[in-house]
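Researcher: Go.
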Amino acid sequence: MTEASKDTKGGGAIARHRYLEVLHQFTMSQASLTAVDDICWNIAKTAIGDLGFVDCVVYLLNDEGSALTQRAAHGDKNPGDRQILDPIVIPVGEGIVGSVAKSGQLQLVNDTRYDPRYILDDNFRCSELAVPILHDGRVVGVLDSEHPEPHFFSEEDVALFTTIASLASTRLDTALALERLEAQAIELEEARSAAEAASHAKSQFIASISHDMRTPLTAIIGYSHLLEEGSGSSEQRDKWQRAVISNAQYMNGVIGNILDMAAIERGQLSLTMDRIEVKAWVASLEPLIEQRAEQKGLSVLFIVDSKAPIFWVSDRAKLSELTMNLLINAIKYTMQGHVKIEVSKEAINSTEYLKILISDSGIGISSESLSAIFEPFVRVHDLKHYSKVEGTGLGLTVVKSFTEALQGKIHVESEVGKGTCVEVLIPSGERNVRLDNSSQIASAKATDPHLAQVETDTGCLLEARSILVCEDSQTVAMLIQAILERAGARVTVVENGALAIAAIAPDTDHFDAVVTDIQMPIIDGYELANQLRQLGWAKPIIALTALAAPEDKARCLAAGCSDYLTKPIDPADFPTALANAIRSHSQEAVMP
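Model: Structure:
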């Protein structure tokens, strides 16, 4: 309040007339206001400012009712139009303002130097008057004013501030309710738009999946019929066989990405750390993409830097899948030229990373689209001009999720018409790791000359081994039997768990291992493993199932299975995995 106004205290008619005039103007101006900020700034300027007080802040309670925020100010806290200098938040119960919000009672402090609750905001002031803004007995906010002089505020000032707070409370409460409703409406609209976008994206995804499944199925079914008929020359039949395998592998990759996305969305992505021989790992990727590149006339370069690590600890399956997704993507979007993968080592802030750099001379990605490439179901390329490029929009989402799960980094640079470069950095995993089956196989090959000949001679890999295969699908059972017999095994096939128990119970020494499906009639794979263990059968039980989620593996092992493999199987690797399981069991059996 101005000094002239202070001189009129004691009931001066001029001061009272001025108060009434300002209050009347304030009441009239509030009538047309509906927005929270408009009401708050009107309180600070039209009421407090015009009455001559040097300082005022209007606080409002947040939606949670836990803190007060500054919404309008007069004085030094207001350096410009509707600006608040260094706005602060005061928790309910803290400071003089917070105490008022908690109790609903006004606070008049004549000398803040003796009140430990005082919170210094912009400048120190000796007097503080804090009045609650109440609506139906509920605190909406606090009207706070300070003055440099001690004992500045009078009872008349208290009454004046209380009147202003009372006049504004109903309109302010209504405005706050409308603000919350508007915010909820915006959230609902955003949620609706997001749901519509997700629905549209998933519709596109389903259409893409249908296309991506039907296209390779057409090749698989068509070429299989031709092969069954004995059509074509020897060269053509070889080509058709490769096409069947290539398209089947493509379908397997699509299904793998879908399953991975499901695991990611459930938050059930798990890691199994392996000791990977880097050069051998890179070499294993070559045959998986060579045919794709050859079909498009592209050259593919695999480069392992001389300073690259010899071994690296990571999740082999996820490292391979994310790299394969990137390579397949590069081939998809490269119409001519090359695709290159370079593997090296890089140190950043004392942390060493396996660096995987995949570059291509493809169609590239626009700068506007780069931010969306990792979103699920999104395909950012020009669908009009490149409509034949297959894809579900999941590959890069899986890549990013796997990279993050491995605590790595990924960076993409691209230019339309010139190509794309993706850099993935993967730190080494824990050194004390349990090797998975593929790591055990690699280790076994290194120490066992017999297993080292797997790639060239599988005929004696399972020689003299007796294997019981429990599989209710006749075609899958025929395939497994053919693969194992080719590796030298004697194979007995049954179609459910009950028949498997009947085959083993009379002579528990007859079979060396059981390979069992999980979903079967009468007695399923879980119960079969459980009953065999109860019978005292301690030999390997290998679950071979289409159930591929992490919890499925855990359930199989908990039921008594010693190993877990997923369908589809690789005819080249399956006998090795089985031989290794039997070998590991034999070593454990002779250990003291």
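Model: The chain has four domains: 3-184, 198-262, 273-427, 437-590.
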